[in-house]
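To whoever is covering the structure queue this week,

Two jobs came back overnight. Logging them here so there's a record in the thread.

Job A:
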Amino acid sequence: IGYLREHADEWNIDSEKIVTCGFSAGGHLAASYGNFWSRSFIAETLGVLQEEVVAVGDGLNDYEMISYAGLGVAMGNAHPKIKKIAKYITATNDEDGIADVIYELILTSKE
């Protein structure tokens, strides 16, 4: 992330829209970030305020990440404990809930 931000102007990247994202077997790096978001050094290193973090999850392994995030989102098929702590519940994985979150809450949000 730091490397991308360092070269953002050169590569025409909006440095405010760089994230770590992972799914299933390819999500190990993102999962590691998810487990450590509640530790301030990650957010401080990335220059991200807690209230700027959006975390989406469905399993108990996502508990800390969703608890920490300024906007914690549970998938519609999430574990009941995840739904209980989430500030927002989206559609299920099969119903493209993550796409809904990105579109409705991030891309079209009012500043």
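Job B:
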Amino acid sequence: YIMEGEGGLTTLTKDETAKLLAEYANVPVSTDGSLAMQNISGKYYSKAIAQVLKMNLSEFNKLNPNFDKQLSAKGNYDLRLPNDKMVQFKDARVQILQQSVGMLLGTLKG
């Protein structure tokens, strides 16, 4: 048999399904409208985003668990930021992407 694509929920093992559900269980959900969500793709790096947005890295990681790993594996990510930081992100998107690539290549320090 030839399997096409990368599989889906139906092709996951029990352990893989448990791990996936645990990752999604830790994703914060805003009920008061204080968080914005934007699907992004590209070579973004969590440290570069936090640095440009002047955000604490642990706060960024709390809002976006496994950001670097999931973006690398899936190619996109539902980025969650406070509303004011999302506006800053959209305005500085090119700068953040350039800094991310520089940090990943080791030409810029994080």
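Note for Job B: The CA atoms of residues 53 and 85 lie 6 Å apart.

Please reply-all if you pick these up so we don't duplicate work.
Q.
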